[in-house]
Amino acid sequence: MPLSEAACPRVLPVLDALRRAGMAADSPLEPAGWKGALKTAVRAGASYLLVLGEEEDEAGMVEVKDLATGLQTRMPLDAFLYRCGR
Predict the structure, then answer these.
(1) 61 and 74 in contact (C-beta within 8 Å)?
(2) Taking Cα atoms as reference points, which of 10, 28, 26, 30 lies closest to residue 18?
(3) How many other C-beta atoms lie within 10 A of the C-beta of residue 3?
(4) Which 3 state secondary structure label does DSSP give 5?
(5) pLDDT digits 0-9 by tens, 22-65
(6) Beta partners for 54?
(7) pLDDT band at 72 (very low <50, low <70, confident <90, very high)
(8) Cα 66 from Cα 63, distance rounded (Å)
(9) For residues 28 and 49, what is the distance between their CA atoms, to the nearest angstrom?
(10) What is the pLDDT of residue 68?
(11) Which of 41, 48, 69, 86 makes an SS bond possible with 81, Cβ 3.0 to 4.6 Å?
(12) Alpha helices of the chain — where are they, by DSSP H?
């Protein structure tokens, strides 16, 4: 999910990469806050919440929150897909 207007154009390619890797992925295409995104992800039964803000976008990274453990890490999207065995 995008945290800023600047990150919005980057959301579709991230969703596409996740889906091509065989993962179910969804996102609002407009910026949203952490709290709302977390609630939505938990209600949807998601395993992870990926957040794309301006800083992450500029660095070519995504913020990954593991919803089972609560651990949060910033990493390249490819590293996340590799970690998930995709």
Answers:
(1) yes
(2) 26
(3) 20
(4) coil
(5) 888 888 767 667 788 888 889 989 998 888 877 887 888 888 99
(6) none
(7) very high
(8) 10
(9) 12
(10) 94
(11) 86
(12) 8-20, 34-44, 54-59, 77-83
